[in-house]
Amino acid sequence: MQRLKIYNGKIITPYRIIPNGCIFVTGNTITAVSEGNEDFGDAIEIDAKGKYVAPGFIDIHVHGGGGHDFMDGTETAFLKIAELHAQYGTTAMLPTTLSGSKEELLQTLSAYKEANRKNTQGAQFLGMHMEGPYFAMNQRGAQDPRYIRDPDPEEYKEAQELADIKKEKAVVAAKKFLIEKKDTLKYKEKAATKAEEKPAEKIEIPKETVDKYIGEVNKFFSPAQGEDFDRFIFQDDEDEDIKVAVIFTKEEIQNMKKETTAYLHSLSPYDKDKKIPNFDSGKLVAQIADILYGDQIKERMLKEVKKLAQTLRIEQLAETKPDKKSGGGGKGKEGIPSVEEQFAELGKKAVIDRGKKK
């Protein structure tokens, strides 16, 4: 099985960019990602020369490129578009149609079928994205209104057979829905002679509402009294002395503020009354932190837990029978370092945060 190593690159991950990173691939699977140039046996090596290395882009809505359009309905258009997008990082795509005549759509599907067999140099085709022609007129966007029409089972059945689309349950359910709701979805001819239908009402959250929630988040990061936020403290429910702190860098805190503010400006957290149910600024920041730095938080927490475990072990030894007169190579009974030596060693490694920031 072929083995590949890409080294000396800036590797983009969901959480951070790894400088001087290394990626190991076995067959078609990424088996490891590391920082630094690691040995990978007899693998084929590619020097990224300090450039960015990112996952391939999968484009699920693309109409063309390089002077070609998928609605040209030719193999050449499909192949040239795929080759062009592959040069700029797209590894797979769904060629997308526009609303057109039945003949144009069938010709485009036919061209896709032939081009898909010959596409060896461009981004992979994953199937066709049929954008239209079954739209509500007031939701057509940039689609040509001349080709907007009611769902026609005979038409899309023919397109389905031509494209070799499998009759999955979801497709069958969608067809049934369209047929049953045809009267509801039908665009009335009378409306065509009138002015454009009124667009759907745009939902907006009042600025003062957003500002109020952002204000609560700002108080969390910089309270009126006390130190600015720089850590989460994880505490045992049954023993308040058992706690560890995960500390964030200034850059990480700024990113958390930025993403939390952006989230509060979106519609996602608000209910129909334009409020955020059970809003808790601390919990929200914790959720954002987990999205941004989940893996790093777990790694740092594990390190602190190990340190705490070592500290508790030392305290247990101090309460029993420690050898306070260390000798013979600095080891006590049964080869255990004396309490003084253990505390000194721990002090060199790290200081456990047992409460608020000092």
What's the number of extended β-strand segments?
12
Listing every helix as H and every strand as E from the N terminus to the C terminus, the arrangement reads: EEEEEEEEHEHEHHHHHEEHHH
Rg for CA atoms: 31 Å
Structural class, judged by helices and strands? alpha/beta
**Overall morphology:** flat
Can you give the helix content as a percent range? Answer: 25-40%
Give an overview of the whole structure.
- The chain is an alpha/beta fold and 358 residues long.
- It has 3 domains: 55 residues, Urease, subunit C, domain 1; 137 residues, TIM Barrel; 143 residues, no CATH class.
- The strands form 4 sheets. Strands 1, 2, 3, 4 and 5 form a 5-stranded mixed beta sheet that branches. A 3-stranded parallel beta sheet has the order 6-9-10, with helices on one face. Strands 7-8 form a two-stranded antiparallel ribbon.
- The protein is flat.
- It starts with a strand and ends in a 9-residue tail after the last helix.
- The C terminus is likely disordered.
